[in-house]
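Meet the record:
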Amino acid sequence: MSRPKIKSKNDVQEGSCFKSIPVSSGRESYVPQVTPDRHQATVRKMKDKLNIATWNIRTLLQKVKLENIKQEMKRMKLNILGLSKVRWKGAGKITSGGHEIIYSGGTENEKGVGIIVDQTVTKAIKGYWALSDRVLLVKIAGKPVDFNIIQVYAPTANSNDEDLDKFYNELDTAKTQCKSQDPLIIMGDFNAKVGTEKVDDIVGKHGLGIRNERGEKLIEWCQTNNIIVGNTWFQQPPRRKWTWKSPGDETRNQIDYMMISKRYRNALLLAKTYPSADCYSDHVPVVGKFKLKLRKNSKLFTNIKFDLAILKTNQTIREKYQISVQNKFEALGDAEEVEQQWENFISYRGDPKSKKKAKQKWMTEEILNLMEERRCAKGNKEKYEQIHKKVQEKAICQKRTGSMRNAKR
């Protein structure tokens, strides 16, 4: 498939695949990063090192989970964290406490992927493409070249071959949006075991376990696309290799991977897991240290590349785009509702006593400390579960108290 042609914001006509942030639902084309203030659209100079990780977190439905993950990002000094199994519906981005979360989900609270970036990276984001609830592509301004990150969540072993083929087709489609001369990082939960047997310059000998059929398919895809499985090339003890453990901790496997285009393999300086990290998941994060430099992104709008002809040739993407457009119009509501909202807005503006209500901050230092205590108790299952229960109870109580206070105002 040929790479999409360049189209600027002014070249794209109404009804095209060009979308502006935020995105509420559906699969979207690349979305340009819009910065409200030109003077803020710069990225400070930093060392040519980025810490990038991927983690299957099981769910991000509970708000306490997001705060937990942000705390772990800070502790591990991560700049970018890819997430598998987010379970959020739709696609778009949100900001939370200095972090930006870009996500891509389906119509149900299952599967889903996302990428969280810190303030250092936020202003370097050029755009993203929420392709499906299993594949998300983010483009980042780099120096001397931009780089791309694809976060994935592959079908589990219980899924059929059709689902697996669909996943790899989506991965192929995402890869076509990236320039061949730009670094490409692909990471996430592949639900595959590549094992310890070296395969050319694609798979190293420092993997874990015995290769399975899904692992063979992943290796075949990597060979075709000149991608190396990064965390199999660094000698580490077994505890720094496994990424998932079974219930009861009877089995530990390596099924999550940090991969990079072969041309830029030297940009990956180190890759290993952090078994001490905790967000109440049966997976642990794979962390890679990369020699990559961010570029100052001073443009208010960024020209985005996308193949508009794909709507004619790819029925699946065309149908998803049509559904997305339909959802946008349905979200507008009927005329009476819009008129009522406008009247309420005028009434609010005319009331000199009206004040903007501050958002209730329900996350407390006590809850954060309990999360850290739970992390330190990972070796003691009984104690770990007891502390986790306390975290949930405190969070529910705090949010309920905050809701009652807001209702009295």
